[in-house]
Amino acid sequence: MVSSARSFDVVVIGAGPAGGYLAGKVAAAGYDVALVEEHREIGEPIQCGGLVTPRVFEYVDCKETIIGAVHGAQLYSPSGRRLVIDGHNTQAVVVQRAMFDRAIATDAVRKGAHTFLGAQAQAARRDDGGVEISIDQDGEPRRLHAKLIVGCDGVRSNVAKWFNILRPRKILPGFEVEMTGVRGDPGFVTLFIGNEIAPGFFGWIIPSGDTARVGLCVGEGNAYAYLEKMLTRPEVRQYTKGAQPILYIAGGIPLGFPRRTYADNVLVVGDAACQAKAVSGGGIFTALTCSSLAAQTAIEALEADDVSGRFLHRYHKAWTKSIGKELRKDLAIHESFSKLNDDQFEELFDIFDSPEMLRLIEKKGDIDFPSKVGWALLKEDPRLLKYVGRALRAMIAKNVGI
Ligand SMILES: Cc1cc2nc3c(=O)[nH]c(=O)nc-3n(C[C@H](O)[C@H](O)[C@H](O)COP(=O)(O)OP(=O)(O)OC[C@H]3O[C@@H](n4cnc5c(N)ncnc54)[C@H](O)[C@@H]3O)c2cc1C
């Protein structure tokens, strides 16, 4: 039997970083917030390498989830040639992703949010000046009512689908295996580039405390099959020989730039709104940044008693004018690089393999704002124009300030 609907000011679907953070911020402002998560355990299953910059801790207070620090990267070309970039100081940290998500959700609960775990949102429709949401919690149908629903339900967002918000242009399939016994300096991430290894993206080894995440994303195709092949390559095996898998992780990276991330009574945030960086696939920092802006708009809308699309548009405007500029550039850069052949990648390695270029990358490289270093590199060596011309044209055509 379906019980009568329980009412909240805001119902957040999905307790990843975007959902947990937004729920806490809106609850702290004194509103009734429900945080609905289909899994019984927040943070599981893990679908992430956990590599973030220390900037994320400006949003969330959970440094206890850090399991490693990274100060550099080594890059392998298609022919197995290696470039080492060493920033010397901590450039990024690795978090235990399940603990990270749980810490954010715990904080939301402390601030007054109400969690529904093992609760899958199955449908939502506008009703009575708000939204009625049908959920299935451990086989029991339930109904929730909200003035505002926020879709933080990840790359295959149903909330976006239910309210006709445009879906990603493409989802890049990814696969990772967590392994014990991986060799190598835990202060470095290792990236593998080339069309045989990971066409359309790249492969990686991310040190992860006592273990390491070995994975890749590809433009299309069977990511697991590509990963199996990658693990047989000599430049990868020198690190993974004898290592044992302990966990397989599948996921997808949304590509695209949605024209609308709101509707009457609805906001979408994080991967649900394609707010991940197309250059690296990283989406935690951007999800938190956009979640903060969405929470601010939600609070203002509730204060003004106006959850119309016209009002909620200010969230879309805020994120596209801030982090959205970088996301657009990243998309253009990704589109340029994903079309290069292996000979062109080798030529790029020739260009980067100079003390001046490496010094520039070490000085200006920033995984949250990858386009910044691109501009400096282009000034240093105009030969790069041949490879990023398409990206530049796309940026200019889309009227994005550089
Ligand atoms: C292989 C891989 C590696 C990655 N590595 C990194 C990395 O190293 N660093 C980085 O910054 N980013 C990384 N990312 C990206 C990062 O994981 C995402 O960008 C980030 O998790 C987005 O957060 P989110 O809160 O928007 O969505 P998610 O973290 O995906 O959370 C969505 C939540 O919604 C829940 N949900 C979905 N549908 C429903 C429903 N109908 N009802 C109830 N709950 C629902 C899900 O269970 C999930 O908990 C990686 C991605 C992949 C695929």
Question: Could you characterize the architecture of this molecule?
Answer:
This protein folds into three domains: 6-43 and 98-168 and 256-321, FAD/NAD(P)-binding domain (3-Layer(bba) Sandwich); 51-95 and 175-255, D-Amino Acid Oxidase, subunit A, domain 2 (D-Amino Acid Oxidase, Chain A, domain 2); 327-397, no CATH class. The chain has helices spanning 17-28, 97-110, 158-162, 223-230, 234-240, 284-304, 309-321, 323-337, 342-352, 355-364, 370-380, 385-397, and strands at 6-13, 33-37, 51-52, 66-70, 72-76, 82-86, 92-95, 114-117, 119-127, 130-137, 140-151, 170-180, 188-192, 203-208, 211-217, 244-255, 262-263, 266-268. The chain is built from twelve helices and 18 strands. The model has no long low-confidence stretch (mean pLDDT 92). The strands form three sheets. Strands 1, 2, 8, 9, 10, 11, 17 and 18 form an eight-stranded mixed β-sheet that branches. The chain has a seven-stranded mixed β-sheet with strand order 6-5-13-14-15-12-16, sandwiched between helices. The chain has a three-stranded antiparallel β-sheet with strand order 3-7-4. The chain is of the alpha/beta class. The relative contact order is 0.15. The longest helix has 21 residues, at 284-304. A hairpin with a 2-residue loop joins strand 10 and strand 11 (140-151). It binds flavin-adenine dinucleotide.
